[in-house]
Amino acid sequence: MEFFIFLMEQYACYKNTTADNVLRQLDELKLTDYVFDMYEMYHTEALENAYKDIDKVIESKSK
């Protein structure tokens, strides 16, 4: 959970928004569990890779 919070805060900075807004968007797209469950991959790679993956799944789900 600590890493998830850290990731949300860092991703929010990357997107120039707040963690609340990021979490709200993930909840609306039903992606929160997906991102949370990607812990194994996200915490072993560069955060920029996680950002790219999150961007990709948000974009694909938003269409």
Compact summary:
The protein has 63 residues and is an all-alpha fold.
Q: Number of helical runs?
A: 5
> What's the SSE pattern?
HHHHH
Strand content: under 5%
Helix content, binned percent: over 70%
- Extended strand count: 0
Q: Would you kindly provide a written description of the structure presented here, covering whatever features stand out?
A:
This protein is mostly helical. The protein is 78% helix and 0% strand. The protein has helices at residues 2-14, 19-28, 32-37, 39-42, 47-62. Helix 1 packs across helix 2 (19-28). The protein starts with a helix and ends with a helix. The mean pLDDT is 92.
Could you give the topology of this structure?
Elements: H1 2-14, H2 19-28, H3 32-37, H4 39-42, H5 47-62
List keywords for this structure.
63 residues, mainly alpha
